[in-house]
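Recap quiz, item 2
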Amino acid sequence: MTTTTSRRVRVDALERVANNIKRFEFVPIDGQPLPFFSPGSHVIVTMREGDRIWRNPYSLMGSPYDTDRYQISVLRVEDSRGGSSFMHESVEAGAMLEISEPVNLFPVVRTGHKHILIAGGIGITPFMAMVAQFKRDNTAFELHYAVRSADEGAYLDRLRAADIPGIHIYRSDREQRIPLATIIENQRLGTHLYVCGPQRMIDWTLQTAREEGWPDENVHYEHFNAPPPGKSFLVKLAKSGREIRVGEHQSILEALEQAGVDAPYLCRGGACGQCVTAIVDAHGKILHNDHYLTDEEKCRGERIATCVSRMDGGLLTLDL
Amino acid sequence: MIQPSIKSRPVYPGLKADRFAKSNIVILDTDGSDAFLDMARSVAGDFLHKTTVLLVKGPSNGRDAAERLNALNPGNLWFFPTLETMIARLDGVLSISRMGTRIYVAGSEPLIGSVIKTALHHGVVHDSIIAEHRGSLRRRVQCVHCKGCTENVTTNPVRCAHCGLTLLVRDHYSRRLGAFQGVCIDAEVPGEIPEAKVEFS
């Protein structure tokens, strides 16, 4: 019951854009243009190597009006489960990959009168597409982009070359910090705030905005969790009685897919809630890692986001 | 409290103070002023200092409400004889307001709808406006045929004040207009019109 259809694309070009960050350009192989997308959208990229399959969400960072090619940026994650390493080490120009249709869980609120974008590190990617749209539409915006250093910040030259007064870059190796409270304390009514970056940056942004009296409705964030590793455990499917082992470096969703179960998903990062599944029984501790269920729902333990959450060992019976 | 009948029909969760806002704009009619007076009992010391209250006194002159609001000693307290004069001032206030401003509205639905409609023009997200319904259930109704709005509708069906058609008042609501939709009730058999009943007193 997956809600996305996939299509095959060819890697037309790739380049290293910063330490551990590569940019990939995908072109269609069937001659049909790619769909228009709205800024903030991501695609799920399916990577195959032997028996292993990875499916990771990556934000689209090109112009939304470029239907000839999609662009993504991939950060090689230190304790990578394999997907980002595969993209960095094994994918060359000409390689074939599968991508989903674009899905947007981080859209621009078009009724807003101004947009302030707060980016940390690889979190710049959805904002690259938004900036392209804002420039085209002559929309008021500011981009505040924090990087560790010049070597680790992607697209610094490109952003500087754009010569837009609202674009600001901060380097933490020079002790530069985003002065968020100052930025948001005197904005016009109808301004929206967007943050994409590490979890602590998101938490800090949400907290600062609240303390500055911003309504929650004007503050937006996107954070894809990679499924964290943990102890191996068993998943039992209540309807079929099947038992499937989830490996230490696997998510429940990945284990289900490997066993041929067509389980629902959309973002694969704990954000959208599409994969949330009813729990019939749980022996052991549930480790919720998603942003979708409320704290209260997580305590009740009646449902689980199979894309990022897992058990601390034991047995989990799902209503599947 | 108003119950949701169809998805389009707005509901209003009630006034609840946002203690972080740097300034507050509070729009009330005389019935709605009770809701704000209730909320004001439990707010922190400086809340009222940073609050501007706009009261539509209406035909009853609203002296009692005005006096009780005055006793709260808010930062600003302005009185208006009509909804329209209040909206003109609100529009000016919002045009110079900054983020960190919280908007509250309490009273009749045409008041709430007019405030939300005005705030939308300033880019405000409608869900961020804290609203409470008090008093009459009277409605603003837009005739879907001639597009004219009839104010203070209490009966169903109702005669369109513009084109004269008899309209069935639906729960289908337009946030853009702040009005419920009225549809010709005797289009199939002209003249077959049920007796009007007071449904929105």
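Chain B has two domains: 23-133, 139-198.
The first strand of chain B starts at residue 23 and ends at 29.
End of item.
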